[in-house]
Amino acid sequence: MKTALGAFQDAFVEALHRRPVPALRSLTAQSGFEVYRNTVLKGCVDALCDNFPTIERLVGKDWLRAAAAIHARETPPCDVRLILYGEGFADFLEAFEPARELPYLGPVARLDRLWNEAFAAPAQALLELASLAGMSARDLAACRLEPRTCVRWGWFNGQPIYSIWRYNREALPIPEELPWRGEGALLVGHAEGVTWHALEAGGCAFLDACAAGNDLDRASALALATQPDLDFHDLLGRLLGAGVFRPINLT
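^ DNA-binding domain-containing protein, sequence as received from the core. Prediction below:
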């Protein structure tokens, strides 16, 4: 049950986002209330620009701030952690008329979002290679490798999204002849930041299968079905080296 103060605070927030609140009509009619609205909107726009730096590099600061203001008015934050603001920004960009000629903008925003999620995820122990020593091939095939909470990945079909994102994120010039084909990405959060790696379609399928609770035997089969020429042993070594998995529960 909400207190009178809690109800007033909820109504105040609604009014800040220009939603009609009859009970606060006299308050919102005051010219000073617009100061609060502008302050809140600026905070939302600043957060979106900070959370999507690759988009800013692609379209420029003014373009992004204008788009962010429209999105912020339509979709205000629902979490006090502003680093997680912008969950629907990629969808917004994909439907945004001024971005129609930039079909890669939404997927690139998804990678920025994955970076934020990996960065903000809580710390979690990782699987040490030494813990696998002594396991038989049969036992290893039956175990479940679970991605850590700070790990994110995604496959982007038909567009070199990871390359576009990485070159801009690292402030590097994009090659003039960039192969226009699907790419995947892997992002891993650490205490010192986030690392990123290219990931093939089979690798993304493997992590999808692991996250769904499949054992190693089944997950590897699904990865190879997605990409028959996949070097699975090389993939597993890269994922273990990147610190993707949490310790195996042997109980």
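The chain has twelve helices and three strands.
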